[in-house]
């Protein structure tokens, strides 16, 4: 199985899956690669939601060989629905007992071969990453327990920011300091391979920051604690979708108010989903990265 890009429309890039490739079928890997490299923020968000579904199923012991064979577009939405159904089941233990299959242990020769294959795969991925760097904030989806976001126990706080309209922003580290008044700083990379991505495969550090839009407002995660950190949320992540809907220019205060309304009306122990970093700069960076020849 290849680790990087095959011919157009048949690509798999294991670097996009955040270590979850073991829990996905090859068709799912191929289709999520297509979504992640489409340049379309809604498709990138769908891929992030699907990978959360894969993670939840794998935690319940439900691996690809335990699922019916499903293909292409329907598989992504089926994955999401299947993960939600699994979560509604009584316990993860019951799920894994129903799904359990007996797999014979590999002998020492097979283990050595598997180990060598894994080493070679990781080496190829590392070499590919040297010439095809990923954005510093990759798209991801998290599900958190719903509560009043104005209370101190809420795991996240938010702040307003402005995207400068460039693809370079996807490769610029965001730092946030201060308590009441937030100070946001960006560290622009000087990595030559990043400029190669921005410039469509041409090595030219004078190509600029690849401006693609006018500046626009966005919401950042300003602080993280408790459940937020354990689910992989990081300070500086860009909040792009709430419960499947794009924020669309919503300010931080408006997001807090929306979450507060949900907390007041939804039943106890309910959850909410955030998609992070499925924004235009990251989507375009992933698209340009995918177009570069090896």
TrEMBL record:
Composition bias, Polar residues: 92-108
Source superkingdom: Eukaryota
What is the name of the protein in this document? Answer: PDZ domain-containing protein
Where is region (Disordered) located? 82-112
């Amino acid at each position: 199985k290849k680790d990087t890009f095959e011919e157009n429309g048949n690509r798999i890039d294991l670097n996009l899956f955040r270590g979850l490739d073991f829990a996905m079928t090859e068709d799912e890997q191929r289709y999520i690669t297509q979504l992640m490299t489409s340049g379309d923020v809604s498709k990138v968000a769908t891929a992030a939601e699907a990978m959360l579904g894969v993670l939840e199923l794998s935690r319940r012991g439900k691996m690809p060989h335990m699922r019916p064979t499903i293909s292409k577009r329907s598989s992504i939405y089926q994955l999401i629905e299947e993960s939600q159904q699994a979560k509604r089941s009584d316990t993860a233990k019951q799920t894994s007992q129903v799904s359990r299959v007996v797999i014979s242990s590999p002998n020492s020769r097979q283990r050595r071969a598997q180990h060598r294959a894994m080493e070679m795969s990781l080496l190829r991925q590392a070499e590919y990453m040297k010439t095809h760097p990923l954005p510093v904030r990759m798209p991801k989806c998290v599900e958190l327990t719903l509560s009043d976001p104005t209370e101190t126990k809420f795991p996240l706080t938010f702040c307003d920011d402005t995207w400068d309209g460039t693809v370079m922003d996807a490769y610029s580290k965001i730092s946030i300091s201060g308590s009441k008044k937030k100070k946001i700083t960006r560290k622009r990379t000087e990595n030559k391979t990043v400029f190669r991505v921005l410039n469509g495969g041409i090595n030219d550090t004078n190509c600029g920051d690849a401006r693609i839009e006018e500046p626009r407002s966005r919401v950042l995660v300003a602080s993280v604690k408790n459940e937020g950190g354990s689910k992989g949320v990081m300070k500086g992540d860009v909040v792009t979708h709430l419960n499947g809907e794009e924020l669309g220019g919503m300010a931080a205060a408006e997001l807090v108010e929306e979450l507060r309304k949900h907390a007041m009306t939804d039943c106890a122990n309910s959850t909410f989903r955030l998609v992070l970093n499925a924004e235009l700069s990251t989507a375009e960076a992933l698209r340009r990265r995918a177009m570069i020849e090896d």
